[in-house]
Specification:
0% strand, elongated, 6 helices, Serine Threonine Protein Phosphatase 5, Tetratricopeptide repeat, mainly alpha, 147 residues
């Protein structure tokens, strides 16, 4: 019983001492400036001290984006595919999925750009002919829209 009481007193005093930090006076020349919050959504952003290139995060973003596509959350999927592109620049696969999402959303011009970028990065893709046909079809639809 005596040890428990001693521990409680010690813990309480440690907590009290930690909370009572000395306040240092600021110089009167410069008023205190609040730190600006540069990122409002940090769920998918790297911390400032972390590298931007993160292939594992890119793969995870692709998985989550594909899941969002399956359940019909196209906007969320596009965000995840864009995050994958940011995390691993030069990786072709996110552009393919982003193009599919944009096509489903009716963003035909953007889908064409994404598909073209996919083929630029992966010129020997197995589905190259299929993607080129999609590009031609979308470009024709965009051309009809203008007329």
């Amino acid at each position: 019983m005596r040890i428990e009481t001693t521990l409680r007193i010690w813990l309480a005093s440690a907590l009290f001492c930690g909370a009572a930090r000395p306040v240092w006076a600021q110089s009167s020349d410069e008023p205190a400036k609040p730190k600006a919050n540069k990122q409002t959504d940090t769920a998918t952003k790297n911390a400032e001290d972390q590298p931007k290139w993160d292939p594992l995060r890119a793969e995870k973003d692709l998985e989550v984006g594909q899941y969002y596509m399956r359940i019909g959350k196209i906007d969320a999927a596009m965000d995840r595919f864009q995050d994958a592109i940011d995390a691993k620049p030069g990786y072709a696969v996110p552009f393919l999925y982003l193009g599919e999402a944009q096509e489903k959303k009716g963003m035909k011009r953007d889908a064409v750009k994404s598909y073209k970028r996919y083929l630029e990065l992966y010129p020997h893709a197995e589905d190259k002919e299929k993607i080129q046909k999609k590009i031609e079809k979308l470009q024709a639809e965009v051309g009809k829209k203008k007329s």
